[in-house]
Amino acid sequence: MNLTLKSSTALALALGVLSAPAFADMDAAKAFLDSEINGMSVLSRAEQEAEMQFFVDAAAPYTDLEIKVVSETIATHEYESTVLAPAFEAITGIKITHDLIGEGDVVEKLQTQMQSGENIYDAYINDSDLIGTHWRYKQVRNLTDWMVGEGAAVTLPTLDIEDFVGKSFTTGPDGKLYQLPTQQFANLYWFRYDWFNDEKNKADFKAAYGYDLGVPVNWTAYEDIAEFFTGRDLGYLGVEGEVFGNMDYGKKDPSLGWRYTDAWMSMAGMGDVGEPNGLPVDEWGIRVNEKSQPTGSCVARGGATNAPAAVYAVTKAIEWLEKYSPPAAAGMTFSEAGPIPAQGNVAQQMFWYTAFTAATVEPDLPVMNEDGTPKWRMAPSPHGAYWKDGQKIGYQDAGSWTLMESTPVDRAQAAWLYAQFVVSKTVDMKKSDVGLTFIRKSTIDSEHFTERAPRLGGLVEFYRSPASKQWSPTGTNVPDYPKLAQLWWQNIGDAMSGAKTPQEALDTLCADQEKILSRLERAGVQGELGPVLNEEQSAEYWFAQPGAPYAKLANEEEAPQTIEYDELIKSWQ
């Protein structure tokens, strides 16, 4: 981040924002294009200037406003806050405070604004995981109507909504767009490409397990590879210290909930088929009816949160954490565990967020070659024994701009201008180059990222492939994300600590979820979109119905299957 902060200061000086310009003009825009964008855009210079002229002109009625927006703290949002917000202020005259706080704190602020009606922030960057909440409560502006209504005069003509790769994630069942993506990243399989291609490792693995070492297609193969590398002496490859075959985290902390809802259960095969999320049962195990009303979470009501596939998912995660991971991992949070693979002693990680890519390609890391290419690669995550073709297989985070109905119109209009500025085609390629959290197809397909792709370990290939469509955020089945999400880390934490068995923890979790669904049903606050719980039936009744929940498999250990990485990449192309 040092480079980002240095460029921020230099840019601020160049634009004159440190001396608080009295009015907006194109001189500041041209200085920004020269010093920061410097040709790194899918647009020509003339097209960039045309977009900047729009912001200069459209901002004129709002130059006396001081706008506050908020996001979680990741590299992409740090760039927005420290570089793009000062640039926007210099170009438009609208003062922007872009706060960076924890993801849980963002949700808390948003929830407080929803409950109180007080305008805490003029715009939020919050995960599209809240799409079911936003669609049902109707407390955010739907952007489809906004852009042709009160927001028409401040909507960038070249915004090009169809260019956003996460548009389907932020669209409700009514076809309306409720949020606009500003960063996006997936959880994928991460592995040491150099170790997997080492002839001794390949020969020893084949001798021990009877099949080729490669990217695991299923969890059985992942487990074999984890066992093979844990404790293995790789000194002959220059690796110092103990080697581990798995990396994960297990501290009882809000981030532990993300570990499972984002979307470990779908990888195990808990839910139904369907893109971007399983229907009628999703990766939270919540079932909905034909009107998208939640009808249950426990197996007794047709849900799957405590089904055999869910128990299998949690059991395997705990087993691998205990057997094949660094001892400290069990006490780590998401942010603490993220950098560990880059330290050079982890062979693979099934659940690795691509948001860590930028920090994992830094020069001089043990996982980097001298020529700037990585020793590691990323690939699709393997799937569990209950998984079937057509089911969701992984998670994408889509941090997205959200305008609350409680925000005064003029403040929402000014905030919307800033939101569009940081996702504009003028800015997007440079922002993507910094944070590597792609949101636009035009950026992903650009010549710049074709050239940079060999240094990014498969990230570009993944986002250009049809496989990426099987990775999606939380869908619309979840009716109140803030209330339900906190149940996950608390209950899963009991299983991780050994206080409860996975079955006991998931029984409590699904019951707790149904208590909230029942309260929402009684309160009627979501109208005809709110929960309508099914009557309880026997597990055998629901197992006999088509789709999820599924009965326990007689054998949860599939025949192991791997694929050679370079062949996998060819199949994407």
Automatic annotation (TrEMBL):
GO MF entry, a single one: transmembrane transporter activity
Key words of the record: Signal
Transmembrane segments: none
Keyword Signal: yes
Top-rank taxon, per record: Bacteria
Record's signal peptide: 1-24
Keyword Manganese carried by entry: no
Name the record gives this protein: Bacterial extracellular solute-binding protein
